TrEMBL record, chains A, B:
Catalyzes the attachment of proline to tRNA(Pro) in a two-step reaction: proline is first activated by ATP to form Pro-AMP and then transferred to the acceptor end of tRNA(Pro). As ProRS can inadvertently accommodate and process non-cognate amino acids such as alanine and cysteine, to avoid such errors it has two additional distinct editing activities against alanine. One activity is designated as 'pretransfer' editing and involves the tRNA(Pro)-independent hydrolysis of activated Ala-AMP. It is an enzyme of class 6 (ligase). This is Proline--tRNA ligase. Consists of three domains: the N-terminal catalytic domain, the editing domain and the C-terminal anticodon-binding domain. It is found in: Cytoplasm. Its main location: cytoplasm. GO terms for biological process: prolyl-tRNA aminoacylation. InterPro entries: aa-tRNA-synt_IIb, aa-tRNA-synth_II, aa-tRNA-synth_II/BPL/LPL, Anticodon-bd, Anticodon-bd_dom_sf, Pro-tRNA-ligase_IIa, Pro-tRNA-synth_IIa_bac-type, Pro-tRNA-Synthase_IIa_type1.
Amino acid sequence: MRYSQYLLNTLKETPADAEVVSHQLMMRAGMIRKIAAGIYSYLPLGLRSIRKVEQIIREEMNRAGAIELLMPMVVPAELWQESTRWEQYGKELLRFKDRKEADFCLGPTHEEVITDIVRREVRSYRQLPLNLYQVQSKFRDEIRPRFGLMRGREFIMKDAYSFDVDEAGADVAYDKMYQAYRRIFERCGLRFRAVEADTGNIGGSSSHEFMVLADSGEDAIVSCDSCEYAANVEKAELRDAGATAPAPTEALSKVATPNQRTIEEVAAFLKVEPARLIKTLILRTDGGETATVLLRGDRELNDIKLCRLLCCNEVELADEETVRRVTGAPSGFAGPVGLKGRIFADFEVRAMADAVTGANEADAHYTGVTCGRDFTVETFADLREAVAGDPCPRCAGKLEVWRGIEVGHVFKLGTKYSQALGATFLDAQGQEQVIFMGCYGIGVGRTVAAAIEQNNDANGIIFPMPIAPFQVIVTMVNPNDAEVCAAAEKLYADLLERGVEVLLDDRDERPGSKFKDADLLGIPLRVTVGARGLKDGALEVQERRSGTREMVPLAEVAEVVAARVRSALAG
Amino acid sequence: MRYSQYLLNTLKETPADAEVVSHQLMMRAGMIRKIAAGIYSYLPLGLRSIRKVEQIIREEMNRAGAIELLMPMVVPAELWQESTRWEQYGKELLRFKDRKEADFCLGPTHEEVITDIVRREVRSYRQLPLNLYQVQSKFRDEIRPRFGLMRGREFIMKDAYSFDVDEAGADVAYDKMYQAYRRIFERCGLRFRAVEADTGNIGGSSSHEFMVLADSGEDAIVSCDSCEYAANVEKAELRDAGATAPAPTEALSKVATPNQRTIEEVAAFLKVEPARLIKTLILRTDGGETATVLLRGDRELNDIKLCRLLCCNEVELADEETVRRVTGAPSGFAGPVGLKGRIFADFEVRAMADAVTGANEADAHYTGVTCGRDFTVETFADLREAVAGDPCPRCAGKLEVWRGIEVGHVFKLGTKYSQALGATFLDAQGQEQVIFMGCYGIGVGRTVAAAIEQNNDANGIIFPMPIAPFQVIVTMVNPNDAEVCAAAEKLYADLLERGVEVLLDDRDERPGSKFKDADLLGIPLRVTVGARGLKDGALEVQERRSGTREMVPLAEVAEVVAARVRSALAG
């Protein structure tokens, strides 16, 4: 492609509404343009990367035995009513009426439609297993669309659905998809983790998220430094170390702590480590109950673990009035000594002696507090967030903490949708059975955005070769120099002939501005064609990621560059 | 692909709501399934044909220098308000509100969105010309969706938009697209005509429709038997032959024609050819005017030509009361002799002598009517529909009449959208100029459906090789015979290795039912692997279209079949 004939305008300024680096760079590199909040056009350069990710996905889905079809974006309400999601799904489901006042929605996901297809087409166990997928534009009416393609409203997704005769079959299908997803993200050239995840409102019994690692990621994840264990931090299990409190060396003693409320304030005031404090949280559940939770002073509560223990959906810190009623003191001075009501504590608290807690009295704390002697706990449980260095729940390794961006999600759905819509089959004995399902999604645009979050520097994008919109950029230093022009055109033709995807920068622009654009676009290899190089009979080949430059004899450039592209694609 | 693992159920019965043969066959062959009125899922087999058409389109669009991008399906009202189409477009534009009560529509076409992109990206004449296209699902809320993919509501379309500095540039862009479209439909293996067409409500100055020829087509088109001229019958021009009436041989004479009203009735009653009658139509325009139009008795009025002459949008036959007021007689007895008011006549009427017309009196007609002597006409013009045998308006050839299905449409848009949305550029002199546009659409699903309308027989579809979902079907006559099974598997592998797209019918079904399915699916070549053939060391290769069968030595089958596929694709 000739740059001068392409629709590709780079921006010098970062758009004001672009908060994250992938959004900023995709806008600046002319990959996407906003049409409305959360709704983008993919300009030619952006579409090229999107299509590459799609192609890798298709190849791996087909290799795993999945079959491609295409469902409509406009879906009749009836199907969503059958699954009861018409009522349950929030405002993210964009509902509307057609000209005949019939109810429809824009599909945010297609469990209902695919289950409807399968219930009509599948009669016998002989037709199973099946795995059906599509690559399609979906719509979710996010209340706060942002971060460009990361959280858009209209977005391209690959969604697959597996259908099996029983749970064992569904497990096999799930594992196949899990492995296919690993291959997909490996082939995209991304560093990622597959982590255990919550199943959320889509239903189902187990799930993994595929997370592209990036410091800017929205999600915190943990992974073991020696085994395959990885999980969303919300889901990361911590074992009970089984330790009990050592023999205390101090007696319980009340000390004045005027205006010292937070862990940090009290620790500093009493000159002890925060880990010596017992954090006492007075909480209210969505069921209206009050509960006290104890954690080591340097730990954070994991809401999801507590909700699971208390069988509730949400917890929040109690208001000041409730704190005063429960503890008899203003907030900041709560502690378990003498406290009434249900007390829950993280496993670690059981091992604490000579600790510091609030005294349930304004401006006062206790020192010398020992669990078991000075207070008792109803239930010890795993209630805190995992941190780097925590022991792995599966082996003797230690956990590492990463930030990541969710790009894929695999779910075991069980029979939730097949039951609701009546997707059944006749087994070998002629008995009607309900189909077991799984669903498997990849955000295509999100994968490109996550790749950019993971691969960029101050100068712009650094595309991994497999998803780069172009593999090579040939920069004509001076297009008005006939010799430069001819040499660049020849190299362009030679590379195209070798199957390399080349952008020929034939614009009448200053060389510095062309180099800046090449860096911004993130094309993996750049060849500079200028008068100086031609005089020396060699052209400069620069690698975008490492910045290394090398002079390659003119006659060899096309072959050397083509070989590098092939080798980078082979991994 | 193995049939036993594929999602492909053929239907024996024709679905009751499928009126046209392509709809019937696409349903029966398991290519599509209806989700709601005019909304279909493309099952795997159907999607394969769709993708092949898409791929041919992409290759030819790229070859013509067009650049692919992708615009959203959900479009904000603001852009449509700028072009004023938000108000003008009928209920086919599906409008809705998002969760924040902002107005949106589902894009039925994307002139507004692309013009918005271009006005933001293009500043200088140096960036032009540009031709941008996408392949995308669109939505039109048809009041009466029908005929399967022919007139759906959600449908896949390739839409392209060209941008040029002036009208001459726009003409070049238009010609390039015209040629690209010819190549696309040729490469799809279809018989078609590119015809001059009306521009309709999309605006613009000139347009061609690409019509796939099929007896079941909705549109009538004409083409010259010796030059390239072709047009929609509504648009087909007929020249003034310049003839005047010969010397009359009869005097004007009133005859009784009791209850004889129609051309056919009067001609039969008076024992003359219908061509001897002058058809007299009393019409009302949408402006409320009354006009009388004369045609030769065997001709049909072309409304569009008359509207152009009268500068109105619509004409309809006047009601009985108006007819009585204008002619003084009940309808069925009107004629130009002695008639008041404006009289328009087709060129042919000028050459009529000794003709028959109504006498403007109940149950009476005149014979011996001669134009010029017995009545006068305000304007002679081309007012009738063309018929087979009419002279070509461009050369000495004669017109042929066909029925066709519109699958593509190219328009010169001029500056309608660029003016409305302010898409301008600075010319070489630094002056701001408005961009000239063209738009170019192909219905992808419609092309597949039209191909089936054109290519089928009593047994099913007959796919042209380039858009066949599979190129070859290998029919295992008895999958329980180990030798048959091994030979079929080997042939399957050998064909795949040669890049042939094969469906291996490995189902445990009766051979007759497998052959029936193969015919229904329309796969161009079938190889039958059975015990008898294996014994003789040869396999039967059958061509779907001609039905010819041939025994090919076992060792050569893969190569012979692969060669036939290659040769069919090469055209």
